[in-house]
Amino acid sequence: MTRPKRWTTAVLDVQAPGGWAVVQSDQGFLKDSNGVLFPREWLKRQDLPLMHEHGIGHFDGEPVYVQTLRDSQEVGPALDLEGSQWQTLRQFMLADDADVFQMLGYAAQISTWAREHRFCGSCGQPAQQVPGERAMYCPHCNLRAYPRISPSMIVLITRGDEVLLARSPRFVSGVYSTLAGFAEPGESAEDCVRREVMEEVQVTVKNIQYMGSQCWPFPHSMMLGFHAEYDRGDIVPQADEIEDAQWFSIHDLPPLPASRSIARYLIDLYLARRSGSVEPVLPGQADG
């Protein structure tokens, strides 16, 4: 039986009273012993250095808003409420509650979009929220800006009982992962797979198969996940992008990405299929 989703997106009227809010600053999201949801009317009395507020959806049926604070460089130290602390989105990703992470991931994307579109990208005039629609509107030149989603591919390259994994200098020490990259204008997802693999490790692939997708809110990616079989070529890591890349036996793998990531899902799925064990479920998909 599929359980009801605790988190659903919606466009809510910021003029409406009540509800709950999550608070984001350049230090992350505010959290206290009760979690990340704060009474919205109580927050309004805290004299926050508020940049903007957007209604983003419902959690357990209750309306939720995201309140984004001005950067600490503008206003000094960020809000410091007794008993509360700031926690990064990545820390929430590693925590146990996938529903909370999904809500905060969406909040982060809407907050980033709203911050980047406070002014019209065409004429530079201040933009306004469009009531009932997720859009920013310029009354001077009629330009509308909608939240941006950047499609990207992520692929596990396989060769029988071996998988090709790589690490970027930006990764946690020792961790190896799948290859990934953003799609270019005019190319298909499969073309993106072929190009990125060639650019990053100088090998060609075949039998590209789509495995699933994941919204990746760092800050606004849509990750399209694939398996692809090795075709030919020797590994040559891309300078300045790939610190190391090599073939690993599925029986002797290095430290891997976090379990909630689509990169880990692609690896675990291949391992399950090679061993005939139960296949994992991609986080954020249907739950039993």
Automatic annotation (TrEMBL):
Residues bound to a divalent metal cation 3: E196, E200, E241
Cellular component terms per the entry's GO annotation: cytosol
Pfam families: NUDIX (PF00293), NUDIX-like (PF09296), Zn_ribbon_NUD (PF09297)
Residues binding Zn(2+): C120, C123, C138, C141
Motif (Nudix box): 181-202
Required cofactor names: Mg(2+); Mn(2+); Zn(2+)
One GO MF term: RNA NAD-cap (NMN-forming) hydrolase activity
Biological process according to GO: NAD+ catabolic process; NADP+ catabolic process
Chemical reaction(s) catalysed: NADH + H2O = reduced beta-nicotinamide D-ribonucleotide + AMP + 2 H(+); NAD(+) + H2O = beta-nicotinamide D-ribonucleotide + AMP + 2 H(+); a 5'-end NAD(+)-phospho-ribonucleoside in mRNA + H2O = a 5'-end phospho-adenosine-phospho-ribonucleoside in mRNA + beta-nicotinamide D-ribonucleotide + 2 H(+)
The keyword Transport is assigned to this record: no
UniProt KW keywords: Hydrolase, Magnesium, Manganese, Metal-binding, NAD, Zinc
Residue numbers binding a divalent metal cation 2: E196
EC number: 3.6.1.-, 3.6.1.22
Cofactor note: Divalent metal cations. Mg(2+) or Mn(2+). Binds 1 zinc ion per subunit.
Binding residues annotated for substrate, in chain numbering: R90, E133, Y146, Q214, C215, W216, P217, F218, P219, H220, S221, A263
Residue ranges constituting the Nudix hydrolase domain according to the UniProt record: 147-270
Binding site for a divalent metal cation 1: A180, E200, E241
Gene3D superfamilies registered for this protein in UniProt: 3.90.79.20, Nucleoside Triphosphate Pyrophosphohydrolase (3.90.79.10)
Entry similarity comment: Belongs to the Nudix hydrolase family. NudC subfamily.
Subunit: Homodimer.
Described function: mRNA decapping enzyme that specifically removes the nicotinamide adenine dinucleotide (NAD) cap from a subset of mRNAs by hydrolyzing the diphosphate linkage to produce nicotinamide mononucleotide (NMN) and 5' monophosphate mRNA. The NAD-cap is present at the 5'-end of some mRNAs and stabilizes RNA against 5'-processing. Has preference for mRNAs with a 5'-end purine. Catalyzes the hydrolysis of a broad range of dinucleotide pyrophosphates.
Protein name: NAD-capped RNA hydrolase NudC
